[in-house]
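Here is one chain, start to finish.
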Amino acid sequence: MVQYFINSGDHEHAVAVGQRALALAAASGDVSTRLTAHIFMSRAYYSLGDYRRAIDCLRQNVTFLSGELVRERFVGLPGFPAVISRSQLAWCLVEVGAFAEGIAWGEEGVRMAEAVEHPFSLAHAYALTGHVSLRQGDLPKAIPILERGLRVCQAAHLPLFFPRLASSLGVAYTQSGRLAEGLALLEQAVEQSAAMVRRNPLPPGPGPGRRTRHAPAAGPLPSRPRHPLCPDRPARAGAC
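Its structure:
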């Protein structure tokens, strides 16, 4: 339910539902629910600009998820919570200017994801950690990480990550002088994101991040050359 309200743009409601989930988890000793609630609540807090609370949620997770628990999947998440929590913590720390700590957590998440060789966890870690390096302006570090993420997205058919990876990599390419490649990726990111929204429209109604009931769907974008990391395919949500 927390994820539903996040996707709807109703972040305050997402936080409220997450807090109820945490209370139930505390009463029952349900570790999986506690970890999952912290991850989704951190996303809601991030969207609200409450980075400190987002960071606090994720710090609780990474403190718990150490040692043998690093390789535990638990339930309720498509990836390893140890990886997801560290990657999202890196993402949030950047917003408060803690670049060094953010990069350290992000790189730890990448190492964990590479150790378990889990595609979703890899794509998540590469996308967020690459973005952190990009935000710091470290293009030589950001580009290889984001390229690896895009390859994982393509090989494992993970359309969810394509817009984020392609947009970050497109910005990195343009900032490094590779304008043609960068623009191609940015256009593909917009194209795929629009296709995903057309296939899975957000619930109607006003509010931040929502489409209104009568908002028209985005029209098709002009056909553009594809970047070599993402071969020519129809513009659809399932294609990387």
